[in-house]
Write a structure and sequence with these properties.
The complex is a heterodimer of chains A (221) and B (374). By secondary structure, chain A is an all-alpha fold. Chain A has ten helices and no strands.
Chain lengths: 221, 374
């Protein structure tokens, strides 16, 4: 698969995923202006349990990369460092709207997040797991295209200040650089590995489905 | 199964072309002054000229059915057929003349055609492709030998000040929101028609319909363009559900409006639909010779071009044909008015592929049609 064909297929997966998210109950509420502070608390508690694991599976993926691909290993490691304390922003936001650190840190993962992480860790443990670029495409896409929109809608509907939606605004403003890194990684020679293009696209599809599931299962522990 | 060929087009654009300085002579001014949004909207849609079915006194000389009939008569004149050969009529429109009966009945009433079958299609711009599919499939099934499809709109009659002045919003603000002014300065009037036959023209080009692919994403997006109802917290409430006609007017049920943010959110699914057709092998961007896309404004086109380029499936801009800037955006009529001009321009050569694209922001519908010049 050529890099253009991979990009094309990833965009098909993305555009399908992005619009399908509109059918998830919590997103419907946000889109229709019916989002409450309780909804936001629940979103933060559930979202934090996903974000806190993100840099861990990226780091595990980095440790699964052999010395044949040192440049890519550096990219995965750097990416992991950049994101490994992002979840603290979600904790601060939770406290800013009346929650406590104890409450958000001790909350369990919802059943969707459980499946999401089981999959990510399992895939990260495979040798040279570059197919996880498919996952990154979906997750970074959320940061780049959706996060800021969500943040601004939440801020507007609940009349909050910037501090209370910082994570979402921050990702909207910073993730475009990550997308450039993504295109660079795709063109770094990994597509020469047999069926890697197909695997990247399939992993993106699965990640999109599991991400949607964890949003659908908010509150289901 | 038979093939279906488009053998002729026709159009009817009422009155003289109206430039940007004279729009208000026809649709009026709402409030004390020309809308502050006018310049911005015209800059975005880049329309410089359009037609209106009313005269400067605001009197309407035509109905939607009448201009559809005129476009059909023009198409018949351009074809090798006579009106008596017509067997099936499929009409399309956004808002027509009556709630009951359907537009196809009213149009047939204007035509000198006897013993024909009809089908009325109402949506927004995409109703044109819905009607087209109905006629093309009927020809393919060999139910008929000659069918006609029309698209016709008189948007301007809904843009007159009296249609807004009774709304609570106007009473409070003495002006309209961007969502309403955008449509007032984007849509205009016109009709177009196409003749579909089971055989191609003799001694002249025809367009063989290769396929029509359309998808609705209405389960994923809330209503974006609305008329005859209002949207409250994402729910559509009909004028008929208001306690009285007066209440429906006050709440703004009859003021057409479009959620502009939502339009931009729909662009990715339109692009995704195109990419899937490329991946399925139905569209080969290298083999498309003409693109006829009914984008509602130049700024939307720019957004689409950006995404297509990134995915490596952009079709050279020099192959894109449009007349929206000088004939106006006429909703369901546009695709016929676009194809009419291209078909008789001398630009089409036998063997060329023409890709038509009609997206509809009403509630996220998207359609493509591939034609081959034969």
């Amino acid at each position: 698969m050529s890099s253009e064909s991979v990009m094309r297929n990833l965009l098909i997966v993305w555009t399908d995923f992005e619009s399908r998210l509109n059918t998830v109950p919590i997103m419907k509420k946000l889109n229709n202006g019916r989002f409450s502070i309780e909804d936001y608390k629940e979103l933060l508690v559930n979202h934090r349990q996903q974000v806190v694991e993100g840099s861990r599976w990226i780091a595990r993926a980095a440790s699964s990369i052999t010395s044949d691909y040192l440049e890519q290993r550096s990219t995965f490691l750097k990416h992991s460092v950049t994101e490994h304390r992002d979840y603290e922003m979600l904790e601060n936001q939770f406290c800013a709207i009346g929650g406590t650190l104890e409450e958000i840190r001790n909350a369990p993962k919802n059943i969707g997040t459980e499946i999401f992480h089981s999959y990510m860790y399992e895939q990260s443990s495979q040798q040279n797991p570059f197919h996880l670029l498919g996952s990154m495409f979906i997750i970074e896409g959320l940061g780049q295209r959706k996060a800021k929109r969500w943040g601004l809608a939440i801020k507007d509907q609940l009349d909050l200040d910037d501090k209370a939606v910082e994570f979402y605004i921050y990702h909207g403003d910073n993730d475009p650089e990550h997308m450039e890194e993504f295109e660079h990684s795709l063109n770094s020679g990994i597509l020469e590995i047999e069926s890697m293009g197909e695997k990247i696209v399939k992993t993106a599809k699965i990640t999109a489905l599991l991400y949607e599931l964890q949003l659908r299962e908010i509150g289901n522990y | 199964m038979s093939d279906a060929f488009i053998t002729a087009f026709g159009e009817y654009l009422p009155g003289e072309p109206v430039d940007n300085d004279h729009i208000e002579d026809f649709i009026g001014i709402i409030g004390d002054q020309i809308s502050k949004y006018k310049k911005m909207v015209l800059r975005q849609n880049k329309i410089v000229s359009r037609h209106y079915a009313c005269n400067k006194d605001g009197q309407f000389e035509f109905t939607v059915a009448q201009i559809a009939a005129k476009a059909i008569e023009d198409a018949i004149d351009n074809s090798q057929a006579d009106i008596s050969d017509l067997e099936f009529l499929a009409t399309s429109c956004s808002i027509h003349d009556s709630i009951i009966p359907g537009l196809a009945s009213l149009v047939h009433g204007q035509l000198g055609a006897d013993r024909i079958d009809i089908s009325s299609h109402q949506s927004v711009c995409g109703s044109s492709i819905m009607a087209m599919r109905s006629a093309v499939n009927a020809i393919r099934l060999e139910e008929f030998k000659l069918a006609c499809v029309s698209g016709s709109e008189i948007a301007s009659r809904h843009f007159r000040p009296t249609f807004y002045e009774g709304t609570q919003h106007f009473k409070q603000e003495n002006a309209l929101p961007l969502e309403q002014e955008f449509l007032r300065y984007t849509l205009s009037d016109g009709a177009g028609a196409a003749i579909i036959e089971s055989r191609p023209n003799v001694n002249a080009i025809s367009l063989k319909v290769k396929w029509i692919k359309a998808r609705s994403f209405a389960n994923r997006f809330s209503t974006c363009m609305i008329g005859g109802a209002i949207k409250e917290e994402g729910r559509v409430i009909s004028w008929g559900n208001q306690e009285s006609l007066q209440a429906a007017i006050e709440k703004g049920c009859f003021a057409l409006s479009q959620d502009l943010k939502l339009v931009y959110e729909m662009i990715p699914v339109w692009v995704g639909h195109y990419l899937s057709l490329v991946e399925d092998g139905l569209i080969d961007p290298e083999k498309i010779d003409h693109v006829v896309s009914h984008y509602s404004s130049e700024s939307l086109k720019a957004e689409v071009v950006k995404l297509l380029t990134k995915a490596g499936v952009m079709i050279d801009e020099e192959k894109w044909f449009s007349n929206l800037t000088y004939k106006g955006n006429t909703g369901s009529a546009s695709i016929f008015i676009l194809l009419n001009e291209l078909f008789y321009s001398g630009k089409l050569k036998v063997g060329d592929s023409v890709l038509c694209h009609v997206p509809e922001s009403g509630q996220a519908y998207n359609s493509f049609m591939l034609l081959e010049v034969v």
